[in-house]
Amino acid sequence: QVQLVESGGGWVQPGGSLRLSCAASRNISSVYVMKWYRQAPANQRELVAVITTGGLTNYADFTRGRFTISRDNAKNTVYLQMNSLKPEDTAVYYCNADGRAAEGPLSDYWGQGTQVTVSS
Fold first, then answer.
1. Could you read off the pLDDT of 29-56 as tens digits, one per residue?
2. Averaged over 16-41, what is the pLDDT?
3. Alpha-carbon distance 75 to 18, whole Å?
4. CB–CB of 68/80 below 8 Å?
5. 91 with 38: CB under 8 angstroms?
6. Between β-strands 4-7 and 108-110, what pairing exists: parallel, antiparallel or unpaired?
7. What is d(CA 38, CA 113) in angstroms, rounded to the nearest whole number?
């Protein structure tokens, strides 16, 4: 089991940047595929970015090269750097730790989320 706490959300003007952090309560280096999701009001939760235990990354098309996911295993932390933010990026952003490959089908954990608001 792992607990996740997101931070770094807030208000930013269009074109601005934010860096979200997800702090995990245990080591993540060889156990968890780390993911960022987001959910806007009345919308489904959507996948934003993924980083594997080996450091490979994948991004949703809507990021358009603006977002970067990274992980610092020594700090048990995953980051989402968001640049050139748009109003449509406004959402609650959630960190997810997917350990199913290493620990079985129930190893899938979520943080409480952090609000990102992009407006002028």
1. 788 999 999 999 999 999 999 999 889 9
2. 93
3. 19
4. yes
5. yes
6. unpaired
7. 8
Residue 109: closest CA among 95, 97, 99, 91: 97
Q: Is 87 helix (H, G, I), strand (E, B) or coil?
A: helix
Chain position carrying tokens 């968890």: 32
Whole-number Å distance between alpha carbons of 88 and 43? 12
User: Are residues 17 and 88 in contact, defined by beta-carbon separation less than 8 angstroms?
Assistant: no
Q: Encode pLDDT of 83-118 as tens digits.
A: 999 999 999 999 999 999 999 999 999 999 999 999
Which of 37, 75, 76, 34 lies closest to 56 in space, CA to CA? 34
Beta strands in 1-118 (DSSP E): 4-7, 10-12, 18-24, 33-39, 46-51, 57-59, 67-72, 77-82, 91-98, 108-110, 114-118
Per-residue model confidence (pLDDT) at position 24 = 95
